[in-house]
Amino acid sequence: MDAIVAVYSDWGIGASGTQPVVLHADRAHFREHTAGAAVIVGRKTMEDFPGGRPLRGRHNIVVTRQNVTVDGAEVAHTTAEALSLAAKYESCFVIGGASVFRQFFPHLDRVLLTKIDLAPHSDSFFPDLDADPDWSCTEEGPWQEEDGVRYRFCTYERKRDRGMEEKLREYARLLVEVGVNICPGQTLVISSPVDCAPFTRLCTEAAYAAGAREVVVRWGDDAIAKQRYLHGAEELFDSIPLWQQTMMKDYAEGGAAFLSISAHDPEAFLGVDPDRLLRASRAYGRDMAAFRSRLMANRNAWSIGAMAVESWAQKVFPDYDKTAALERLWEAIFASVRITGKGDAVEKWRAHVATLKGRIEKLNAWHFESLHYRSALGTDLTVRLPKDHVWAGGSSATPEGRRFIANMPTEEIFTAPLKRGADGVVCAAMPLVHDGNVIENFRFVVKEGQIVEVHAEKGEEILKNAISVDEGAAFFGEVALVPYDSPIRNQELLFYDTLFDENAACHIAFGDSYPECIRGGEDMSAGELAARGLNHSDTHVDFMIGTADLSIVGTTESGEEIEVFRNGNFTF
To answer: What is the CA angle 505-509-512, rounded to 5?
Structure first.
């Protein structure tokens, strides 16, 4: 995002809401650069425009705390709302006044400056970019003169860590070329928070470079979503608009690939009515079933990656300031997805997938009838497996044979349990983030596959709602094996994000099963999958159970017991 502003020699920009010195050349410079672009402006500044109206030939976004409408403009009440609106446009300039410049300064990448060689009295100032080590003057025009006043045009750009930039580009290529494995002529649909717009642009660039036909971006914003949950009309949470259903279904049936960029405050929806969250979850599962079932059956390539944002970083690193926390989280993400800046992430992922494949082949050869889990936390659970179950992991394949990696990072090997095949107690080893809430220290009592008791020290109502989305939500749909000695676990971090935390420990999911976990399952109907013992639900939620002392013993069809995990790690 850019800003455009005229400053005096002391970096003043005006007094009492006006500019003491105005140059025609500066006005022409402003018109030239902002024509056709979006402009973010404060309400009071807009009222000083000719006629007190928005600027013609531009997409005006007016920032105000007041509940007003402005003819010819879009209104934003928060920074997040303004960024969400601005993301729709190719170019956007912050144009003032002083409080708006301060508000959006952290989001600026470039500033187009008119330096005026005078120092009239000012009571409002722009940040002194010459004194800011994070900014540098990249273009400095010659001094010119108008009515005896000297001025020059300059461009300042925020300094970027070139190593960081290269890592981000490598990460974008990894998600596009290995994650969804985009192929020439294919459409890519990206779901992204507005805070991740710069990285989403890198993913878009990588997709087109790989031959994508089109890249479609669906923007989201947790802050706006929370306001909707808090204040939206009651009926909003009982259905998904038809146009959204049709859009995703049509893209899926047209062969598109889907990339989701995860970047959320773990407690984004703290304080929201749990009933609204539950109803919204049920509505999504029901109304988006046609789309969701295609992804669960691997009919379309899909992948999920993560982007570091301040709110998430400060939850993971509460003892660091915002900048340091963000840097630490990025370091952790890059380590988890095997990016070092050397450009060899693709090769590392191929080797990693090959390692997982070797273990998958051994597990499939054993044909286990059941698994018995035990840990000092209190887990004592037996899980029976379908007769024709298949262990999977690393990469999956579409019906056309196109390989993709659904989760980046991934360390898991997984299969589906029998719907009615679990009995005992299972205790979570890590907190679970669900529906923008953190659930801590919880356990389930399970009888004949069904969760019959739920206990949690924090977030128990949220958890009870999660297993009540539909009939299948109270049954297990996945069991996954992850060694305690893994790249993610060894960072000794709690990410508060299931994408990472599930790959730091063995986990189980309540809800839907993956059809690929039964031999020939991708080609079976829902009824046929159910007949084979797989669970079906409109939800699928992973929770972590792996500990340093976790024991897992598999029993084969012949009754032989084989130790699969000892002290939290594979025995083979």
So the answer is: 150
